[in-house]
Amino acid sequence: MIEIQKLTKQADNKLILRGVDLSIKKGETVAILGPNGAGKSTLLKVLAALIKPTSGMVKVNGLDLKKNQTEIKKILGYLPHSSLLYDHYSPLENLVFYGNVYGVQEVEKKAVELVKDVGLSFFLNEPVKNFSRGMIQRIAIARAIIHDPEILLLDEPHTGLDQGAITILNKAILSMKEKGATTLMVTHDFKQAAEICDRIIIVKNGKLVDDFHISDQALSIVAQKYELQVEGAS
């Protein structure tokens, strides 16, 4: 599904990614952990075709990212730190707009269903600018999955959310997994990583320092590995 070889990214004479090699299979749900400045978000932005790598190879579904950006973007759902919502639009208007961009069939019906799924039906036609951080994030989640993407790229999606919004987000991620989607999630939240991911990648100083599968929501294993690779090695 995703193949990365010898990926580097340099910015302002600083090497942010240092020869990353990574292979992700279809349907995997992968958490990317690491300290601030490790290169986690940069890796996600490269995969989202938002920034160009300095060197290396990235393939998605066998397609070279450098040569097939438009085609690859069609199967991506991206949730960055910002919501990418138009704040003067309502949830319905935002989702219909993005759904039309991706050619979603019966887009208004799909938008209404997603707003209901994230628990905001009462605010369907209210401007997003009036929403709380948690409400905005819920609609941003719906925006990211309006077109049923094959790959979900989530950058610290749980930050600033209350427990209700966290539950809705995790349900959405697991629902997409059931549909066969592949998810990469940058997070600092070990608990959420353990609960919804089946594989953990730890990044430090632009390099992958650990890569392991987990089962049975093994939070203690995640914490132990992180401490060994990051905190113990600092």
UniProtKB/TrEMBL annotation:
Q: Which domain of life is it from?
A: Bacteria
Limits of the ABC transporter domain? 2-230
| InterPro entries, A to Z | AAA+_ATPase (IPR003593), ABC_transporter-like_ATP-bd (IPR003439), ABC_transporter_ATP-binding (IPR050763), ABC_transptr_haem_export_CcmA (IPR005895), P-loop_NTPase (IPR027417)
Which UniProt keywords are listed? ATP-binding, Cytochrome c-type biogenesis, Nucleotide-binding, Transport
Which terms does the record give in the GO molecular function aspect? Answer: ATP binding; ATP hydrolysis activity; transmembrane transporter activity
Q: Biological process (GO) annotations?
A: cytochrome complex assembly
NCBIfam families (alphabetical): ccmA (TIGR01189)
The record's comment on protein family reads: Belongs to the ABC transporter superfamily.
What is the official name of this protein in its record? Answer: Heme ABC exporter ATP-binding protein CcmA
